[in-house]
Design goal:
Elements lengths: L1 H4 L6 E3 L2 E2 L11 E3 L2 H5 L7 H13 L21 H32 L4 H26 L4 E2 L1 H7 L2 E3 L2 H28 L12 H21 L7 H24 L1 H6 L4 H16 L5 E2 L7 H17 L6 H24 L3 E2 L9
Parallel strand pairs: 2-4, 3-5
Antiparallel strand pairs: 1-2, 6-7
Helix pairs in contact: 3-5, 3-8, 4-5, 5-8, 7-8, 7-9, 7-11, 9-11, 9-12, 12-13
């Protein structure tokens, strides 16, 4: 049964092990940071909140949650080839993102152990959560004939260096948008169980609470470092990271709209809801959020998604120099649209009366 699920487009490192997707601007990133700078941070101004979050991490609400049920023990050959391929891509991207978080948090816990025990333990327990998530996703991939070699992934991926404040911006948004993605899918499938094509989606309600708690941790860290939030640079960087996270998700998901259709979801509508919710949530910590209600906001993202699809198709059978020339107009289109979105008047969160949870 496993062999019949494999497809030639899913390249293997060795039998049963999938070659990781090539790095691109839209694939999950692996991060490293300045550990010494992070160890020197004074968190005393918000230490009580951080200790309360640590207590939640120690409680480990999902200790017994990620256990595969008998529902997994069946054939999945009824999923057609294209749905299977897109679902494998979803599982791989999700597994890679969770494993990236595990590696970063594990290394932070090791580096901070002697200098900031409170932060070190928080990072250690978050790495525990991310390891569970990645392992559960990798086992799901095995149901479709291939897994990732996470050790190979550790050694083969390139790592992006971010200063601590940028790590906090990026991971905060990653965790919060993960929460809204998971809970939105869960609620949809709870209302429409006929579209639950695979049992992993039953786990998303508890799963997303891990993401939410992790996001709350980074919220508390940033509030303990007001210099990360209260100057003109923070206002520029907040807009940059919000736009980067939203655009990456939007361009990825619209290229894979067939996968969301298999769940009974419209990919565009799904992303708009997730973006609106994440943007509102970010307003609790960031000094600025994006004006996603601007009439041009999603119009420009749609134009960029169309250009991204053309970019992916451009020059597939052309020599490399010609391929680059064929891609340039689409790259330029996306770049101009991103600049227009970035320069769009943002919303000052200090002027907001509140945001919807």
């Amino acid at each position: 049964m496993v062999d019949s699920l494999k497809r030639p487009e899913l390249e293997e490192l060795r039998p049963g092990v999938k070659r990781p997707a090539e790095d691109s601007i839209l694939t999950p990133r692996f991060y490293t940071t300045d550990f010494e700078e992070m160890a020197r941070m004074d968190i005393s101004v918000n230490e009580d909140e951080l200790r309360a979050i640590l207590a939640e991490f120690r409680t480990d609400y999902n200790r017994h949650h990620f256990v595969r049920t008998d529902e997994f023990k069946q054939s999945w050959e009824h999923l057609d080839g294209e749905t299977r391929k897109m679902f494998m891509e979803f599982l791989e991207r999700s597994c890679t993102a969770e494993f990236s978080g595990f590696l970063l948090y594990k290394e932070l816990s090791r580096k901070l152990k002697d200098k900031s025990p409170l932060l070190a333990e928080c990072f250690l327990l978050m790495s525990r959560d991310e390891a569970r998530h990645a392992g559960f996703l990798n086992k799901a991939m095995a149901d479709f004939g291939l897994q990732l070699d996470l050790g190979f992934l550790t050694e083969s991926k390139s790592y992006t260096f971010f200063k601590p404040k940028f790590i906090f911006y990026a991971t905060y948004l990653s965790e919060k948008i993960g929460y809204w993605r998971y809970i939105t899918i869960f609620r949809h499938l709870e209302a429409h169980p006929e579209h639950r094509i695979y049992p992993i989606f039953r786990f998303f309600e508890n799963w997303c609470q891990d993401e939410n708690r992790h996001g709350d941790f980074f919220d508390a860290i940033m509030k303990a470092q007001p210099q990360f939030l209260n100057d003109w640079r923070a206002r520029l960087w907040s807009r940059f990271f919000l736009l980067s996270v939203f655009a990456t998700m939007y361009l990825n998901d619209l290229q894979r709209s067939g996968f969301y259709a298999s769940l009974g979801l419209n990919a565009r509508d799904y992303d708009i809801e997730v973006i609106r919710k994440t943007n509102a949530t970010a307003g609790r910590v960031f000094p600025l959020i994006l004006n996603v209600d601007h009439p041009k906001f999603f119009e420009l993202l749609d134009d960029s998604a169309a250009a991204s699809a053309k970019l992916a198709a451009a020059g597939k059978k052309s020599p490399k120099p010609l391929k680059i020339l064929q891609k340039l107009p689409h790259i330029a289109k996306i770049g101009v649209n991103m600049l227009r979105l970035y320069l769009m008047q943002p919303i000052d969160t200090a002027q907001l009366e509140g945001s919807v949870k």
